[in-house]
Amino acid sequence: VQLQESGPGLVKPSQTLSLTCTVSGGSITTNYWNWIRQPPGKGLEWIGYIDYSGSTDYSPSLKSRTSISRDNAKNTVYLQMNNLTPEDTAVYYCNAPAGNAWGQGTQVTVSA
C-alpha cells in the first residue's frame, strides 16, 4: 500500500489545518490509518486514527481540536486540526500499521 500526504505547507496561528492522505494499493475500509507528526528536533507523536469501520480515536492532548475522517469513494483519509499554534509545526505523516506503510510526510509550518 502507498500513502501520499498533501497539505498547505504554511498556516497562520489560530487557523485550521486540513491534510489529505491518499491511499493506493489497498482499501481504507479494510485497515486502520494513523496520523502521526514529528516536530523539529523531537520524536514522533501520535495524533489519532480512523479504523476500517470509520471509528476514530485521538491523543488526549489533541482530541479537543482534532478530527479524522475519510472518503471511501476517493480512498482518502483526512486530518483537520483547529486553532493551530507554532507548537503544531511538524512533519505530518499518514501511517498504516498493517505492513508498516508510511507516506513521505508533509511539512506544516505555523507562522504569522
Based on CA atoms alone, the radius of gyration comes out at: 13 Å
Distance between the termini: 36 Å
Q: Largest sheet, if any?
A: 7 strands, mixed
Strand content: over 45%
Total beta strands:
11
- How many distinct helices? 0
Summarize, please.
The protein is mostly beta strands. It has strands spanning 2-6, 10-11, 17-24, 33-38, 45-50, 56-58, 66-71, 76-81, 90-96, 101-102, 106-110.
Q: What do you see in this structure?
A:
The chain has 112 residues and is mainly β. Helix content is 0%, strand content 50%. It has no helices and eleven strands. It has strands spanning 2-6, 10-11, 17-24, 33-38, 45-50, 56-58, 66-71, 76-81, 90-96, 101-102, 106-110. Strands 2, 4, 5, 6, 9, 10 and 11 form a seven-stranded mixed β-sheet that branches. Strands 1-3-8-7 form a four-stranded antiparallel β-sheet, with no helix packed on it. A hairpin with a 4-residue loop joins strand 7 (66-71) and strand 8 (76-81). The protein is globular, with a radius of gyration of 13 Å. The mean pLDDT is 96.
